[in-house]
Design goal:
Number of strands: 18
Distance between the termini: 54 Å
Strand content: 35-45%
Helix content: 10-25%
Number of helices: 9
CATH topology of the largest domain: PmbA/TldD fold
Oligomer: single chain
Largest sheet: 7 strands, antiparallel
Number of domains: 2
CATH architecture of the largest domain: 2-Layer Sandwich
């Protein structure tokens, strides 16, 4: 896996990118940019000890954007031959000639480009287990879950996925850069039954390197424990109450915030946080830091999808919004500068109160602990928030019993400012690292 991608990175990808840019210039494009990528992966799923699926992925793509003045056209291909690349560029130019002019479109400003040599954030750890090895790990996850409790009597399957990719981004302003990455994951979903019905739950782990994944036995055990704990769930009476969002679902709240302060929402005036820089949008105890340079980080990198250098920066400091998430296009629309976020946010690290989840239960005393949400979530324009939910009822600072068939509702503006505490249990499994969140009051609809 590693050698195959390395050879592409050092030769074929750069060659393809160079050919695309040269042909675009020869056909009259005033500017062009191209991304060339290759990826290979493997997915193995086992259910009740039997192999259900074995998938091998081998993908490659070249996407080119050309600019003819202020007109823009895009086209893509999976064929890296010179003739196919030329046809793809020609198609992009033909499209550009029929699009409306957009004075905000174009390459990123050259002074914002990252400069080679690019730092290595240890993102590439190839691992391609044999099918037999993958099956054994999946079986171990399932078996470990079954051993938790005899009421666990079925499985939706255990899956092991390994993935490696490489890319080159280049443009006619002279930028060319890329790097290989890997991403591996393991998960299992179990079903438990008793006289009151069935419940399901899961656990998972994601990492750049095999040795940073949680063990198969641990994943299975946690999946089993979570599943059994949901048996005999009840409904609770409708009321306003404190709510804790578990660390598996709390990144969704931060995701709603990111969406509200991202360029497309802002220039379309479709955000409840318009013109919020310099104002208090979270409780004063909350800070959010963006760090693209975390070693092994799942959202790390030296530049964004336009070649703009990434930087460490405060997004929220003591509750006050410090900046937006902007690409070059959205920045121009807003009269601002790119923040190096074309393609999305990098590793967001949310401050916490250095307390455990159990201590947070004590702090809340009585209320709802949410471990699963269902539905779309927030309205980006108004901030109104409503989701189906399941979890646990907490009384006297301790979990009492599981609950289900609930709807939680509020307004994100009030919810962000109503954060009482954040636990120290953040999971390093995505681009947003945030622990369990305690919010002072939400509307909970039950019986």
């Amino acid at each position: 896996m590693s050698s195959a991608l390395a050879s592409h990175h050092n030769s074929a990808l750069q060659t393809a990118a160079t050919q695309a840019l040269a042909h675009a210039k020869s056909q009259g494009a005033t500017a062009a940019e191209v991304e060339v990528s290759v990826a290979i992966g493997q997915n193995v799923t086992v259910r009740l000890k039997e192999v259900e699926t074995i998938e091998h992925n081998r993908d490659k793509a070249l996407g080119v954007t050309v600019y003819v003045g202020h007109q823009r056209g895009n086209a893509s291909t999976t064929d890296f031959s010179a003739a196919a690349i030329a046809r793809t560029v020609d198609a992009a130019i033909a499209i550009a000639k029929y699009t409306a002019e957009d004075t905000f479109a174009g390459l990123a400003d050259t002074h914002r480009f990252a400069v080679a040599p690019f730092a290595d954030y240890d993102l590439h750890h190839p691992w391609q287990p044999t099918i037999e090895e993958a099956v054994l790990l999946c079986r171990e996850m399932e078996e470990s879950a079954f051993q938790v409790d005899q009421r666990i009597d079925n499985s939706e399957g255990a899956t092991l996925s390994t993935y490696a990719s490489d890319f080159i981004y280049a443009n006619s302003a002279g930028f060319m850069g890329g790097y290989p990455t890997t991403r591996h994951s393991a998960s299992v979903t179990m079903i438990a039954s008793d006289e009151n019905g069935m419940q399901r739950d899961y656990w998972y782990s994601v990492a750049r390197a095999k040795n940073r994944l949680e063990s198969a036995a641990s994943i299975g055990q946690r999946a089993g424990q979570r599943t059994v704990s949901r048996l005999n769930a009840k409904r609770i009476a409708t009321a306003d109450m404190p709510v804790i969002f578990d660390a598996t679902v709390s990144p969704g709240l931060i995701g709603a915030f990111v969406g509200a302060v991202s360029g497309a929402s802002l220039y379309r005036k479709a955000s409840f946080l318009l013109d919020s820089v310099g104002t208090e949008v979270f409780a004063k105890s909350i800070s959010i830091y963006e760090d693209p340079f975390v070693l092994h980080g799942l959202a790390s990198g030296p530049f964004d999808s336009e070649g703009v250098a990434t930087t460490k920066r405060d997004i929220v400091k003591n509750g006050v919004l410090q900046g937006y998430f902007l690409s070059s296009y959205s920045a121009r629309k807003l009269g601002l500068e790119s923040t190096g976020n074309a393609g999305g946010n990098h590793n967001l690290i949310v401050s916490h109160d250095d307390i455990s989840l159990e201590a947070m239960f004590k702090k809340m005393g009585r209320g709802l602990y949410v471990t699963e949400t269902m539905g779309h979530g927030g309205n980006g324009v108004t901030g109104d928030y409503s989701l189906g939910a399941a979890g646990f009822w907490v009384e006297h600072g301790e979990i009492q019993y599981p609950v289900e068939e609930l709807t939680i509702a509020g307004n994100l503006r009030d919810m962000f400012k109503g954060i009482v505490a954040i636990a120290n249990d953040a999971l390093p499994y995505g681009s947003k690292r945030v622990g369990s969140i305690l919010i002072d009051k939400m509307s909970v609809a039950g019986e």
